[in-house]
Amino acid sequence: MAKDDGSLNINRAICNAAGDAERVEMSAPADSSRMMQAIFLKDHVKRLIDIQPSYIPRPTFESYLSSLREKKRPLPREPLLHVKITHTAINHVDLLYAHGVHQNNKSGLFVPPFTLGLEFSGIVSDVYNPQNQACHFRPGDKIWGGSIGTHAEELVIPASAVHRLPSPLWSLHDVAAIGAGTIPVSYGALTTIAGLKAGEVILVHAAAGGLGVYAVQIARALGAKVIGTVGSQHKMAVVEELLRDPQTGRIPKGEGVINYSKDGWEKEVVALCKQTGKDGVDVVYDTVGLVLKSIRCTTFNGRVVVAGFAGRTGTGAEAVEELEKIAVNRILLKQIKLLGYRFGETSRRLPHETVKMWQGLDEMLSKEPRVIKPVVYQTYKGLNHANEAMEALHKRQVFGKAIVEVCDEEEAMRQVLQRSKQASTTFSARL
To answer: Where is the Enoyl reductase (ER) domain (predicted)?
Structure first.
């Protein structure tokens, strides 16, 4: 997903380009061919359950480019794709954006009106390539990617921001479940930043969450041992199932799942480590905000990778818990390497690292039999149920990913092929 400077600015413009719609209709419009449904917010919300899809103009290459010109943003230096979206995934960041409490709300990137959504899978319906550059995508190609404004029926996006399905074994529903803005975060954190190696032990916090369920599987695929933590009892079974040996049905020695909402969970982690002769974990993957306690069960010269603060930050509907403060002597005494990982910023500043990361991830996802299993809490049929998925995530009921099926895959392909046939007929008539 590496992008040049032009495409970076294009991606930053997508959400506000969607906001250029002057007219938003709540009921079905008379001319539905020019309108589509989207989770389009005219303002930030107080209650997620009140969010409903609206009708906004369908995106076109012309409207997309016009919006960039109006905002004096760079025009694309690469092909653009018009995509029929089949699936979109709900992320914790969606809740923050909807309530207006994310740093990107304050920076001006997500200023109402805008369309929610960060991940999608779908089918290419058209390609815009005025400079005849090399483009490996054609109408009918199945893809997945990350962008702004994906909770919609259609999307215009730079070709560099999408990927083909890893192999024929993967469906559009499957790749939506691993998420182009989810599994790459965990893969990059564990490989590029932590340098996790076979034989090491990793502690994965929020192991049943969107990032966590894939961090667990990536670590196992790399040959590491995994100790996962969860915040509630009902999520333990999800992680235990991922850890079970497929032949014996048992969780291997030195691995397990611990509830971090209970006092003293650090001692349980150390006890599991001792089963394999270690005095602590080699790596911690923290997306919750548990650095201080994690250091207590980290071995000397261990690494702690911070990739989020989901357990510390509210979503606007409740008070925000203060971020933890750490006495630096704790880091010194164990010679801990405290590392941060911000996936989006890495893509912008170090695109070559992101390219290398995707190469490694694609190789892992392409293995047969599959070493990564999609973990789906529930699939919601239609954008009108996206609010239910967001509410479930807010209440911390979701494990893995909550998916919204925007359009049935077969129906989406039928529409794309029909549109392509009509376009070809019109072109022939002009000749």
So the answer is: 63-404
